[in-house]
Design a protein that fits this description.
The complex is a heterodimer.
Chain A lengths: L10 H26 L6 H13 L3 H28 L5 H25 L5 H25 L9 H14 L9 H31 L2 H39 L1
Chain B lengths: L2 H25 L3 H4 L2 E10 L6 H15 L10 E4 L4 E3 L9 E6 L4 E6 L2 E11 L3 E7 L7 E8 H10 L1
Antiparallel strand pairs in B: 1-2, 1-8, 2-3, 3-4, 4-5, 5-6, 6-7, 7-8
Classes of the chains: A mainly alpha, B alpha+beta.
């Protein structure tokens, strides 16, 4: 899911990564709206809100939105920075897993803070929403970067546009049998459905788990980060077993 | 211009945006501070189609009663936002306090009783003198209710002037 890069990735790699990350993004977004009355994966909307607040002369609110957008930017920047700077320095899987672990830490921080220290002040709300937007920036930057922009888990405006274009493409018979287009359609559809499912799960789950919903998101991120670790270990074990068998046969 | 210089300018711009936004948040008047004090209800506006003036005023009083049934104290028209997060009315009869919280980017006023949300308003405008709240209600009536409040000191000064 994480260790392959760009065109080396299979459809299955992208589907698994897209589904899990979109599900976690949907959960975080709805949980954040419920707790803080602020979206965490709605950057397009925030650009409009930023302009609106400035035009109304609400400098404080405008600055808060500007800070959030900049933190999302910083998250995406850091994600790709780690990936490209890590090339040749350390294992590719490690460079891809670092942004996921940073995202994990940001969301864990929010969960722990809400549980132990939250006093419901505006300052805390601003910082915690900022941490979640930074986490979403990390995630979106990672998925877009390693999948050659095929997977964007919080960019639903672009996704809806791409889906609509594909559906219209399928009005031509020959396109319905074009594997590349069909695969892309399946990937986008899965991302959209899992994002909505994550949102539903986040909304309903919050009623029962409350702040625990953030820990659940962390668990999903751990699965994403450790899945390839498990797979690499499995491949290594199979390889060593075969190696032993070959040595036995030679003897 | 040299590309290396442009890249450095990008980093500088990013740092300036972060520092600038943090500076404004730190020094500008926060809605949480602005809201503290005594506010007098000045106006209730209902955005609604197909209603005559008479119908509308009857509708407004009924709606006001129904919407604020959980926040009876506020029927008296005076909202006192205390520094410790308690919302009171000058003629409050209830012992159980209503707590107020500012959420989002400072654009949502949430009211809670016993830790349970009883109402949340969109803060449409907040200044030292005026507070405009919007309420999206889920009754079978189309529209938004706008509540206009004025800071007490401001109101007193105006009265003295007259």
């Amino acid at each position: 899911m994480l260790r392959k890069y760009s065109n080396h990735r299979t459809q299955s790699d992208n589907v698994k990564l897209g589904a899990l990350t979109a599900f976690s993004a949907g959960m975080v977004n709805v949980a954040s709206v419920t707790v803080f009355f602020a979206f965490t994966s709605n950057i397009t909307g925030y650009y409009a809100v930023l302009a609106q607040e400035i035009s109304k002369g609400n400098w404080y609110q405008g600055a808060v939105v500007l800070l959030w957008v900049t933190l999302f930017f910083l998250g995406s920047f850091l994600s790709n920075f780690v990936i490209i700077q890590g090339k040749g320095r350390w294992n590719q899987y490690i460079s891809h897993a670092i942004p996921v672990m940073l995202e994990f830490l940001s969301i864990l921080f929010v969960g722990i803070y809400l549980e132990a220290f939250y006093q419901n002040t505006l300052k805390e709300t601003e910082i915690l929403v900022g941490a979640l937007l930074f986490a979403m920036g990390l995630q979106n930057g990672l998925t877009a970067s390693i999948s050659n922009s095929a997977v964007k888990t919080t960019h639903l405006t672009g996704l809806t546009t791409d889906l609509a274009i594909l559906v219209s493409m399928f009005s031509k018979h020959e396109n319905r049998h074009n594997k590349t287009l069909v695969d892309k359609f399946h990937l986008l559809l899965i991302i959209m459905v899992t994002y909505v499912a994550g949102g539903l799960f986040g909304g309903i789950g919050y009623l029962y788990l409350e702040n625990g919903i953030f820990y659940l998101t962390c668990a999903i991120l751990l699965i994403i980060a450790l899945y390839d670790f498990y797979k690499i270990g499995r491949i290594r074990r199979i390889f060593e077993k075969r190696k032993r068998e070959v040595v036995m046969q030679i003897r | 211009m040299n590309r290396d210089v442009l890249v450095k300018l990008n980093y500088l711009l990013l740092a300036l945006l972060l520092i600038g936004a943090s500076f404004i948040i730190r020094h500008a008047e926060s809605p949480e501070r602005l809201i503290q004090g005594e506010w007098i209800e000045k106006e209730w506006r209902l955005e609604k189609d197909n209603a005559s003036v008479v119908e509308e005023s009857q509708m407004q009083s009924r709606l006001k009663k129904e919407i604020l049934q959980n926040v009876e104290d506020l029927h008296f028209g005076i909202w006192i936002f205390e520094e410790d997060g308690i919302l009171k009315s000058t003629s409050s009869k209830h012992n159980d306090a209503i707590e107020w919280f500012i959420k989002g980017r400072g654009h949502v006023l949430e009211l809670r009783r016993d830790g349970r949300t009883i109402e949340s308003f969109q803060i449409q405008k907040i200044s030292k003198t005026t507070l405009v709240l919007h309420l999206n209600f889920d009754l079978q009536v189309k529209g938004i209710i706008e509540i206009v409040l004025e800071k007490k000191e401001q109101s007193d000064q105006y009265a003295k002037k007259i």
